[in-house]
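Input (structure):
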């Protein structure tokens, strides 16, 4: 392995999003991440989106660059092998991450008997250990009650799973923090990361809880408007949509230049008594700003509006579908973060490497996701030191699986 985390080995027992995405984040930085699954496949091996013949594009996306070992998780010998793998010696080894129930043979206390300096990250639903997923946790945060169009009754769920994503990256950071602590002190530890607490901590940090308590209000729905400043979607002459935002003085001036709005903006300030160079002023006068901007956008094509906004240096973006994004020259096709990979069983499509750019080392190119059990034999041989005849016997007895 190469990359900034070369020499680090993480064993992962995971499903769905938070744990595998955290592991993939480390794998993209050069860590050797070994995912174990049951020989029949994991809980999420067929999760959507899928190809027309049922291959999971989702699974491939979250597990690229990892190695795979397939073991009969119900077989005592299979569990012994995984215990040995998790607790194998080595300076950068002895790191385990899971969102499975970490009890019995996977309990930290049991694994630490084999390696005292073990680092184990356990992602759980809530601090009590109750099962939860992003969608059940999001329900309690309040966000679904402010998401959606003005006047809508009832919750609007998020399409992207924000708390899974935040937990994945927090989990990767936690592993690196614990590994640094181990290098300095020699101590291993168990890390517990509740998905619900991750969501609640972000909700608190963004001021939503503070607003509710201090102002004694429930924020209403504002549709596509950005709360507390100016930002909204606008429809062009050719029925495309663009997002226009104002987050600073410079954005006010740039937008004024793009649409010739300088006089109209000054009039808004004079008649409304606001300063458009402030967030409060833009939020207070958002209806007046829309009344100026909307007719201009509606009278021009998306190409013309985009060209004017780009030339002026305004803050804006076109709305795109996923297919349009895949064909986007700037965002994907010419972006050095992407490589077109041929994922076995799925096909060729652009795959992102890590978004991090380190000055000391070049960015590692993305690697395909493994087939189930693809690396079983090499892991049993190179890490656990099993001879070929023993590995063959394990296959014959269906303790392990994967290509021979």
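Output (sequence):
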């Amino acid at each position: 392995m190469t990359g900034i985390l070369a020499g680090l080995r993480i064993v992962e027992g995971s499903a769905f999003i938070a744990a595998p995405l955290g592991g993939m984040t480390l794998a993209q930085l050069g860590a050797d991440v070994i995912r174990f699954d049951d020989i029949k496949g994991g809980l999420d091996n067929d999760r959507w989106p899928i190809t027309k013949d049922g291959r999971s594009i989702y699974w491939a996306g979250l597990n690229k660059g990892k190695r795979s070992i397939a073991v009969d998780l119900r077989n005592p010998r299979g569990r012994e092998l995984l215990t040995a793998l998790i607790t194998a010696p080595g300076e950068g080894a002895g790191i385990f991450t899971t969102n499975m129930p970490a009890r019995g043979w996977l309990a930290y206390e049991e694994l630490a008997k084999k390696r005292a300096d073990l680092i184990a990250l356990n992602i759980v639903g809530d601090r009590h250990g109750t099962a939860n997923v992003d969608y059940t946790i999001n329900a309690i945060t309040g966000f679904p009650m402010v998401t959606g169009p003005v006047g809508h009754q009832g919750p609007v769920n998020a399409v992207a799973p924000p708390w899974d994503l935040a937990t994945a990256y927090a989990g990767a950071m936690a592993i690196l923090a614990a590994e640094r602590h181990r290098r300095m002190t020699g101590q291993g530890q168990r890390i517990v990361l509740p998905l619900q607490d991750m969501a609640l901590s972000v909700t608190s940090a963004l001021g939503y809880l503070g607003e509710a308590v201090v102002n004694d209000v429930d924020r209403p729905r504002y549709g596509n408007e950005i709360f507390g400043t100016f930002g909204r979607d606008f429809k062009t002459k050719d029925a495309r949509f663009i997002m226009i935002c104002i987050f600073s003085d410079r954005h006010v001036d740039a937008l004024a230049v793009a649409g010739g709005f300088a006089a109209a903006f000054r009039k808004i300030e004079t008649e409304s008594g606001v300063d458009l160079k402030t967030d409060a002023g833009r939020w207070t006068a958002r209806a007046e700003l829309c009344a100026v901007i909307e007719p201009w956008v509606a009278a021009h094509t998306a190409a013309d509006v985009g060209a004017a906004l780009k030339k002026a240096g305004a803050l804006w973006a076109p709305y795109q579908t996923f297919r349009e994004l895949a064909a986007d020259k700037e965002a994907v096709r010419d972006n050095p973060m992407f490589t077109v990979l041929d994922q076995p069983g799925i096909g060729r499509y652009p795959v992102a490497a890590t978004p991090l750019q380190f000055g000391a080392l070049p960015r590692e190119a993305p690697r395909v996701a493994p087939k189930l059990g693809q690396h079983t034999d090499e892991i049993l041989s190179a890490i656990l030191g099993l001879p070929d005849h023993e590995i063959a016997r394990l296959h014959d007895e269906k303790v392990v699986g994967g290509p021979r």
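Notes: The chain has two domains: 9-203+337-401, 241-318. The chain is about 40% helix and 15% strand.
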